[in-house]
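Retro notes (design track)

What went well: tokenization of the new backbones is finally stable.
What didn't: we kept losing track of which sequence belonged to which structure.
Fix going forward: every design gets posted as structure first, then sequence, in one message. First example under the new rule, 375 residues:
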């Protein structure tokens, strides 16, 4: 017995070439119900006010598809070995380019990083070997990418002269101990001297080669926030949605009166378009004239609710008080004292972050990462 699938494809091609009549009705039984219903032509919506014959339509909606699937973000099962030009190195468990793009997915997500970096920069004391710009870049890599790489620049007698930042997005850890490589471009690699690069990373439960940022649990909420904003923006830009429908029922409206109202509606454009219009129906009832807004269906998608819920998820993942991000309170009481919130945030988040970054001092043997004490 032959499979009905090739026959179904032949029938579909015949329909495309010659129209519906090219497929005999007795042969349509080989197709699925939805396919058989699609072969029967149904009149489309008319441009006038004439009623059309309604036809049943069947369709299916698939499962929801995430913006970035689980394999790209959450698995972190293994770090594959990759053969480079100058040696073998490990591939990160999470695409570093994805994390870099995701930083600016929403305003609250990006602002949370900047708040932490500003807190660090506020207390950082520059050193001849580590300037403020380099330290700020290291902090940005550590928070966004989950790791940062510090390169030690030495002189001719192998003494440290300065510290440089190697972008975490393009730096990889070699298979050999102490080996690191910078991927400048395709087939272009810069291998650092062994022992001259320090990797600071946030720990992971699945591997100990690369760091994993701690905000991954809120990325889907951030993507939903972005999707809601893009949907609303496209809705207003396309300009294809109808403004309103003026429906006039029974009430003694003549053809001449209908033409007058139609002309008045068409003339509400340009300067002075916000005008009032008087309509008198001698035999009219309460609902003889109705204004229907089909565009209001898009306004009922809980846009504000989605934005607020996803914002709270992002702030919870970053553990940043909302008043430090400029979030406007929805209640009369507000968020409380901002100075007290900043003091608690500094004790709970910034001080532990400073301690992690001070591991550079232990590796280098020189205290280059120093912070001012707050009163």
């Amino acid at each position: 017995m032959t499979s009905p699938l090739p026959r179904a494809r032949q029938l579909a091609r015949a329909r495309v070439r010659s129209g519906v009549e090219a497929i005999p009705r007795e042969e349509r039984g080989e197709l699925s119900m939805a396919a058989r219903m699609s072969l029967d032509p149904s009149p489309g919506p008319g441009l006038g006010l004439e009623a059309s014959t309604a036809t049943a339509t069947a369709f299916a909606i698939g499962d929801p598809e995430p913006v970035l699937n689980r394999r790209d973000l959450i698995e972190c099962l293994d770090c594959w070995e990759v053969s480079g030009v100058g040696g073998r190195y490990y591939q990160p468990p999470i695409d570093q380019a994805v994390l870099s793009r995701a930083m600016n997915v929403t305003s609250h997500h990006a602002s949370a990083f900047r708040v932490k970096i500003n807190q660090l920069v506020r207390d950082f004391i520059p050193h001849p070997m580590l300037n403020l710009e380099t330290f700020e870049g290291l902090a940005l890599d550590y928070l966004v990418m989950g790791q940062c790489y510090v390169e030690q620049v030495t002189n001719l007698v192998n003494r440290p002269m300065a510290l440089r930042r190697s972008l975490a997005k393009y730096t990889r850890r070699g298979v050999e101990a102490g080996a690191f490589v910078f991927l400048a471009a395709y087939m272009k690699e810069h291998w650092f001297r062994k022992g001259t690069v320090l990797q600071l990373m946030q720990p992971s439960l699945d591997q100990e080669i690369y760091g994993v940022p701690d905000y991954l649990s809120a990325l889907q909420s951030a993507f939903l926030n972005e999707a809601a904003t893009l949907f609303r923006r496209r809705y207003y830009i396309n300009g294809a949605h109808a403004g309103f429908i003026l429906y006039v029922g029974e009430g003694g409206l003549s053809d001449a009166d209908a033409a007058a109202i139609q002309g008045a509606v068409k003339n509400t454009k340009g300067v002075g378009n916000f005008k009032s219009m008087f309509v008198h129906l001698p035999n009219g009832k309460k609902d003889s004239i109705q204004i229907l807004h089909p565009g209001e269906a898009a306004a009922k998608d809980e846009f504000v609710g989605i934005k607020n819920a996803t914002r709270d998820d992002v702030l919870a993942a970053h553990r940043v008080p909302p008043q430090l991000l400029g979030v406007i309170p929805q209640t009369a009481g507000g968020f409380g004292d901002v100075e007290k919130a900043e003091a608690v945030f500094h004790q709970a988040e910034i001080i532990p972050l400073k301690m992690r970054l001070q591991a550079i001092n232990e590796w280098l043997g020189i205290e280059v990462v120093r912070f001012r004490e707050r009163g």
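Added context from the reviewer: The longest helix spans residues 219-238.
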